[in-house]
Design brief:
By secondary structure, this protein is of the alpha/beta class. The protein is built from seven helices and five strands.
Length: about 140
């Protein structure tokens, strides 16, 4: 499977949480793992939240972020560009006014649509948006 991991599915592969076993299994089973440049921004945001809530210390968060960046640089992931066409596709989806998709989630979906990738997400709203727009996806949930 050509799997696009959104941030909610990728973070558990770096930081232990209830979804970690499932996320790691899906990551290792994927033919190729795709992310976008948007993922790094959201990854930083997720780590910042974890430091604010006390789940991670600052030193640990920096270590996790550097590990992620090393993986990107080493091409552990195929990084898809968020191009003008991707923004247009996201805008087109949002302007139908049919979903509660957030702007960045619409960009993740547009990346999947544009590059014909299967979305892996732990985000309920993004999974609902993917279903609504017919984007192949897997909604990761803790069992």
């Amino acid at each position: 499977m050509r799997a696009y991991f959104d941030t909610s599915a990728l973070v558990p592969t770096y930081v232990p949480e209830v979804l970690t076993p499932l996320a790691v299994a899906r990551l290792t089973a994927a033919e190729t793992v795709y992310v976008s440049w948007l993922t790094e921004v959201e990854f930083c945001s997720a780590l910042a939240l974890k430091t604010r809530t006390g789940e991670l210390g600052h030193k640990e968060a920096h270590r996790v972020l550097e590990t992620f960046r090393r993986h990107v640089k080493a091409k552990a992931y195929e990084v898809v560009p968020v191009s003008r066409e991707t923004f247009s596709l996201a805008s087109s989806s949002l302007s139908r006014f049919e979903t509660a998709l957030k702007a960045l989630d619409a960009l993740h979906l547009a990346c999947c649509q544009f590059f014909e990738l299967t979305l892996l997400t732990a985000d309920d709203g993004l999974a609902k948006g993917a279903a609504h727009f017919g984007v192949p996806h897997e909604h990761l949930k803790a069992v």
